[in-house]
Amino acid sequence: MSDTQAVGTVLSRMLTELSKVIVGYEEEATVMFATLLASGHVLLEGVPGVGKTTLAKAFAKTLSLSFSRIQFTPDLLPSDVVGTVVYNPKINDFEVKLGPIFANIVLADEINRAPPKTQAGLLEAMQEGQVTIGGKSFKLPKPFMVIATQDPRELSGTYPLPEAQLDRFMTRIYLTYPSFDEEVQISINTNLGRVELVRQVISIEELNKLIDQVDGVKLTRPVANYIVNVVRATREYKGVRLGASTRAIQMLSRLARAWALIHERNYVVPEDVIKVAPYVLAHRIFSSSVDPEKVIEDVLKGVETPEASLIRR
Question: Which residues form the AAA+ ATPase domain (predicted)?
Answer without folding.
Answer: 38-179
